[in-house]
Amino acid sequence: MSVQEYLDKHALSRKIEDAVNAAVRAKTPDPVLFISNHMKKSVPSMITKVKARQILDSRGIPTVEVDLYTNKGMFRASAPSGASSGMYEAIELRDGDKGTYLGNGVSRAVRNVNEKISEALIGMDPTLQSQIDQAMIDLDRTEKKESQLVFTRPLLHFSNLFLPLRESAFWEFFFQGELGANAILAVSMAACKAGAAEKEVPLYKHIAVLSGNTNLSLPIPAFTLLSGGKYAGNFLPVKQIMILPIGARQFEEALQMGSETYHHLKAVISKKYGTDGCSVGEDGGFAPSITSIREGLDLVKEAIGRTGYSEKLKIAIDVDATEFCIGTKYDLDFKSPNNSGQNFKSGEDMINIYKDLCADYPIVSIEDPFDKEDWEHAKHFSNLGICQVVGDDLLMSNTKRIERAVQESACNALLLKVNQIGTVTEAIEIVKLAKDAHWGVVISQRSGETEDAFIADLCVGLAVSQIKAGAPCRGERLAKYNQVHTLPHNSQLLRIEEDLGDQAVYVGDDWRLS
């Protein structure tokens, strides 16, 4: 084939002429760069390759990372992972080979991306997020991204169906995915980043368009200050005690408040418990040797008092009550080595405890105050209107459970963990469902995080009221708050606020109305 034949076959002469004319009209100082970019834009973008690999999350446990290629570049995403999986959520795929990563390897999920998902998505337009996600769902063929029944680790707190066996070596079982929610999610997130790049807009703006949202806002960060529950080695029964900088005027100020309070708390803890008390849990919260909720709240209250932000900072608690519910009772001493088993609380007792705590401390939000199947007490407490009641284990980002909670008024806020639902499109739909019920929405980290800051853009794009990304320390947590990248599709919250300029709106005092 001659040069002229090649030019004619691909209409290159006309395309090059159009690019040159565009450069002349633009009076560009760098015509070569302009013509190169103009030619690239003229080529419809499509997915050309999807490549997955196994990496380690913040706990040193394997997870899935995906590189998705288009003719515009490469886009990377990684799936977060939680310490536990509920029976109503999308399930990640693990290898189960105890000889490799103690059974936590994800080579099967990686292989599914490289051999099955890649083949299904090559040639698709990355801007068509819902079609990409639906293609993977169809390929997976299961409601919960699952198909195979497997046995995993021993579990004490299994299900109310097996209450008499909860202290025996009963085995947790659940279904694992045909493809794996960890495989599907990483691809879905990478595709979303590619779609934003194709449109030449920041990721959060692309997500806003996908969701039909026209009002962008910066969420209130829920900073973890104290870690407890099963995530820390102290005797604090609740999972986390957090602060909400509700009185900040912008996100940058909120981040400053969180950081200063965190370091004041470190000084308070160091003085009372020694430097050993400043060890941190998985999401960066301090884990001193405290034994009660009030002891922890007193520490946080003292730290807040030192900051001068007392009127601008409020407290939130993640109780994670399912972890210490035995039958219909709640064992607040479940971590104590001297637990006599005599200090069980009823659901009504727990309601009274929460009422007293909210009266004595500036608590405005309580997450999972009861067991995931204790709908009656959840409904009773939520209807008191004392504070925001967030459903995590109660809902598990599951549509049917959210619909039930809306109908029964069992809570008034959704905690969304993207890996519980499986795809970006499904996450958008779940948030719409919560907002239609006039609920608050909290988009959350997982205990096993990576430096992927996708949820920061997701929060802004969906205009949710709160982001729960851990303490203002540890790289994988701070990535969501302030990691600055030069590429527009990797904007994080501080940069997003900068990008929006005068149009940046921090939720602030209106957090319950957002």
Explain what the structure shows.
The chain is α/β, with parallel strands linked by helices. The chain has helices at residues 3-9, 12-26, 31-41, 107-121, 129-140, 181-199, 203-211, 251-273, 293-307, 347-360, 375-383, 399-408, 418-421, 424-436, 454-462, 475-481, 493-500; strands at residues 47-56, 62-70, 73-78, 148-154, 171-176, 220-227, 240-244, 314-318, 325-326, 329-331, 344-345, 363-367, 388-391, 413-416, 440-444, 466-470. It has an 8-stranded mixed β-barrel, surrounded by 7 helices. β1 (47-56) and β2 (62-70) form a beta hairpin. α4 (107-121) packs across α6, α7 packs across α15 and α8 packs across α9 (293-307). It comes from Coffea arabica (Arabian coffee). Residues 47-207 form the Enolase N-terminal domain.
Defining key terms:
514 residues, alpha/beta, eight-stranded mixed β-barrel, three-stranded antiparallel β-sheet, 17 helices
Give the gist of this structure:
39% of the residues lie in helices and 17% in strands. The protein is built from 17 helices and 16 strands.
Identify the strand order in the major beta sheet: 6-7-8-12-13-14-15-16
Overall 3D form: globular
Note the beta-strand portion: 15-25%
Overall mean pLDDT: 87
The stretches of 5 or more residues where confidence is low (pLDDT under 50) are 147-176, 483-491
The percent of residues in helical segments reads 25-40%
Count of DSSP-assigned helices: 17
Report how far apart the termini are: 63 Å
Radius of gyration: 24 Å
Structural class: alpha/beta
Number of strands: 16
Summarize the main sheet.
8 strands, mixed, barrel
